[in-house]
Amino acid sequence: MKLKITLFAMLFMLLAIPQALQAATNATVQKEGLQVRDTPALSGNIMTSLNVGSSFPVLDEEYGWVQLQIDRDTTGWVAGYLVEMSNDKDRSVATSASDANIATVAVDELRVRSDSSRTSEILGSLNAGEQIEVTGSSHGWAAFSYKGHDAYVADQFITYSSSAPKSAPKKETTERVEDKKTVNDDGSYVRSIVEGARVRTEPTTDSRILTTLQKGAELHYLGSEGDWFTVETMDGQQGFIANWIAEAVHSSPSIGTASSIETTSMEKNEQTEQNSSDGLSLQGKTIVIDPGHGGREPGTIGSQGTLEKTVTLQTAQRLANQLNALGATVILTRSADEYVSLRNRVNISENSAADAFLSLHFDGYEETKATGITSFYMNGSGRLLAESLQPEMVAQTTMTDRGAREGNYHVLRENSRPAVLLELGFMTNPADELKIITSSYQKNVVKGIVKGLQAHFSNVQ
User: Fold this and answer.
1) Per residue in 319-333, pLDDT tens?
2) Beta-bridge partners for 364
3) Residues sharing a CB contact under 8 Å with residue 225, sequence separation 6 or more, in sequence order
4) What span, in angstroms and rounded, lies between the C-alpha atoms of 136 and 97?
């Protein structure tokens, strides 16, 4: 009998350990009868409701929704603003390796291969946030153990706890361009926005590395090819650098964004109009614009079928053009209909040392009469930014003022830079939706954001 009890106790402990490890972050319900849905959307089916004060492990977050482990066999989604998050920041991960050999995956679905080649067998995949113990590095590939096998991942998609793994051989040179700016005859150059950005022989991630750049290093801009800039290295070689880790800059403030150095005539007209009306330069400011959702994540869907991800990108592109015209360095977290994880959006903000991070969204609510604009923040610097933006956006659009509020969103909570999440109208309100999709409304809300940024930087300088 004692043996049975002992075996049962051991089995119970083994089953409980994974649950305990998952509960590094908990959410406490702040509203009685909080509805739990099967998907992170108002259109999701209601599974159950929760009592105020109850607490559950957090599994995931998606744009204002939090996935909870309700019980051992049930998970569901709740509105993030109706729960209070708590992090166990003291939890340590046991490892036999030093921190210098620990790397964190920076993208979702990173392929794990049997050898240091893109043609080698795929053993599996890793997702953003997972950690690996790197045992070595060779020709752009990091070696580690995967399910008992020797394996490799492309090391441009991982970040180390320190600058590099101890065993990594340093075969590439590093450009150090601290005291001079390298530009071509018309003033165009490309600047690295991350530490260790790689310049390659071809516009592909598996081509040979010519050199690596320090953050802020600048190279002669020759042109662009797809998602890559063509550059000239310091020793005169032609190379390619991905436009998600670099930005093209022009001596004229009306041209050049982080994703493209081309500007359409319509955009130039808007820029000229903005310059003449607003005047105050944003030269020297780095502003990250985060168009909410994208790819497989459509966001809120309006009554007329409008997708939030589409109008956030339209608005972000208009805003980028205006800010470029005023001399700001602008970085978009996405420039097309593509999925970007919340973690990667924050990484872009951190790596670029953003002076302002603006996450653009359009709201949704069960009550279709809900209307207005809201500015969310999480920390003191974010609050100052939100309180500068909110009145200007309301003034330019004449929308209902829902105020500047604290909001527990991933892109704010995990972001050390001045960051706001802007809800620019309600997709679920038919009247709001008809406004949101018009170019006139988007131009007005952009004008409000620009004026708010100018007021903010005038006050904090």
Assistant:
1) 999 998 888 999 999
2) none
3) 203, 240
4) 12
Average pLDDT over residues 96-122: 69
Residue 73 lies in a domain: yes
- Beta strands 373-377; 401-406: pairing state: parallel
**392 has catalytic annotation:** no
Average pLDDT over all residues of the chain: 75
Same domain? 202 vs 298: no
Question: Of 377, 374, 360, which is closest to residue 419 (Cα–Cα)?
Answer: 377
Joined together, the tokens standing for residue 100 give: 């210098």
Q: What is the dihedral of CA 179, 183, 189, 191, to 10 degrees?
A: -10
Within 10 angstroms of residue 68's Cβ, the number of other Cβ atoms is 24
This prediction's pTM: 0.47
Set 232, 414, 423, 433: catalytic member: 423
φ and ψ at 386, to 5 degrees? -60, -40
Residue 329 forms part of a structural domain: yes
Residue 3: exposure state from Cβ atoms within 10 A (0-12, 13-18, ≥19):
exposed
Say yes or no: 377 and 334 in one domain. Answer: yes
Residue 35's pLDDT band (boundaries 50, 70, 90)?
confident
In a domain, 404, yes or no: yes
The count of domains in the chain is 4
Position 68 scores a pLDDT of: 87
- Whichever domain contains 349, its CATH number is 3.40.630.40
Tokens 């991800």 found at: 309
Last residue of a domain, one of 249, 281, 309: 249
Residue 334 CA to residue 461 CA, distance in Å, equals 29
Range of the domain at 47: 21-87
Of 314, 163, 313, 335, the C-alpha closest to 244 is 335
> Residue for token digits 């166990």?
88
Residue 387 main-chain phi, psi, to 5 deg: -70, -20
Q: Are residues 57 and 105 in the same domain?
A: no
Amino acid at 346: V
User: Quick check: is 8 in a domain?
Assistant: no
Over 70: is that where the pLDDT of 87 sits? no
CATH number, domain containing residue 134: 2.30.30.40
Indicate the residue among 195, 221, 249 that finishes a domain.
249
